[in-house]
Amino acid sequence: MEHRSLSRPPAAGAGALAFSGSLWRGAALTSAALTDLASPYGPLGPPDAGGVALPEGFTARVVARSRRTVTGTAFTWHDAPDGGACFPDGTGWIYVSNAEVGAGGGGASALRFGPGGNITSAYTILSGTSRNCGGGATPWSTWLSCEETAAGHVWETSPWGGPAVRRPAMGRFNHEAAAADPVREVVYLTEDEPDGGFYRFVPDAWGDLSSGTLQVLAAGAATSGTFTWEAVPDPGGSPRAVREQVPGMKAFDGGEGCHCAGGAVWFTTKGDGRVWRVDLLGGTYALACDGGVAVPGRGPLARLDGIIGSSSGDLYVTEDGGAMEIRVITPDGGVSVFLRVSGQSASELCGAAFNPAGDRMYFSSQRGTSGSPSGGITYEVRGPFRT
């Protein structure tokens, strides 16, 4: 059911952008520059009882499991947890998580934490949608939940619950992630197709996503160069798909995560294991990391999924399968493993997000040890993250 209003608490802060990270200092890297520097956190220790290997000083705990009651609540956690984000909530915070379940069984749920990290409640914030995969938070503290279907919508919903609103002006396509840019007052969008586009939505009024202009990045076939933003004639995508409407659109192989900070936006493509950097000030794009190149002792970055940034400027990238790792890319171009999950090779890591203090990271293993959507596990990692 589509609702016409969106509930927002008057005291809500600008959650997602509190830890959007500084402007990444590294220039776009060529494949030859990709290095396997020692991790800024040191080597991984042995896996813990849950199969999570972490550097010294870090610990992990399970905060939710699919089809099980969340500890301290009466709420049952959803299947196939996917994209997520954290929002300030008084002296605590809220972690929201999508459900990548099809046929109207998708949506999103929330975990509410007290100041000490204890879970105080859990609840649904969106239901009745399909394959809610990625998404993104807004500066006005709402969650954009994106449907990964051929005619998928972006849904805007509140982390505190209440009515959700469909945003058709943001286009109907195989949505993945969204990243808000308060400087240019736009929202960037990725598309999970082998020939997908990279989009931006320019709302008529910042803070109101009900109307505006959908544009797509247009450029040549090279891995770097200049670009322009071209308007999509029919964001509804019928009868012609959105990605087929602009002849000069640059195609990207399976757009996934998206992160905006300072004068740049990064996004990942899982088809070729790449991290792209769009220079919003210079009007150029280039590879930030060519993951198809094997890193000595690590192998290539396989099937990249989400990407987030920390206040230190580090980028954290999750893997869809592969070695089931979260890797960190530092501003000097080093690529290293931050954590690894063993015994879950039929799953994927997703939904990484930092709490407001930056000392806890949340993420999910979408199918857990069972390899089934019903086996999803959502984790919290705590430790001395770089600030």
Structure explained in plain terms:
It is a single chain. With 387 residues, the chain is mostly beta strands. It has one domain: TolB, C-terminal domain (Neuraminidase, 6 Propeller), CATH 2.120.10.30. It contains no helices and 27 strands. It has a five-stranded antiparallel sheet, with no helix packed on it. Strand 5 and strand 6 form a beta hairpin. 52% of the residues are buried.
Give the topology.
Layout: E1 52-53, E2 59-65, E3 81-89, E4 92-99, E5 106-113, E6 119-129, E7 132-137, E8 143-147, E9 154-157, E10 165-166, E11 175-181, E12 186-191, E13 198-205, E14 208-218, E15 225-226, E16 228-231, E17 255-261, E18 264-269, E19 274-279, E20 284-290, E21 304-309, E22 315-319, E23 325-329, E24 335-341, E25 349-354, E26 360-365, E27 377-382
Antiparallel strand pairs: 1-24, 2-27, 3-4, 4-5, 5-6, 7-8, 8-9, 9-10, 11-12, 12-13, 13-14, 14-16, 15-20, 17-18, 18-19, 19-20, 21-22, 22-23, 23-24, 25-26, 26-27
Summarize the biggest pleated sheet.
Answer: 5 strands, antiparallel
Q: Rg, please?
A: 19 Å
CATH architecture: 6 Propeller
* DSSP, total strands: 27
Shape: globular
| First-to-last CA distance | 42 Å
Short description, anyone?
By secondary structure, the chain is an all-beta fold. The protein is 0% helix and 43% strand. A hairpin with a 5-residue loop joins β21 and β22.
